[in-house]
Write a structure and sequence with these properties.
Length: 118
Amino acid sequence: MAARDDGLGMCPGLLPTHFSMSEAKKKGAKKFVISGRVQGVGYRFFAEEWAEQLGLAGYVKNLWDGTVEVYAIGDADTLEQFKLRLAEGPRMARVTGVSETEAVVDKRYLRFMIEGGW
């Protein structure tokens, strides 16, 4: 027996045909630059651990000017939670600022990683 279509793109017991699960939590990307005493204190490992716990993709890396750059892909709520964690930092860090900019989703990032060797 074929499923009945009610004319609204619905079949009993199924999601509307125009709805996809990815639309439920649309992914976006943000770039954060963290300033303060954030290098040499385990900040990149801290960011990586939280990103993995929150299910984010992207990277964290030290910048030449003493700041740390974080690029993260996820839904808006999760990115906001991550920003709060970034503002706290690990115990030995002293975060004095977190700047935030919108970024383009780079689909090459499937997981979160530490970039750069220093």
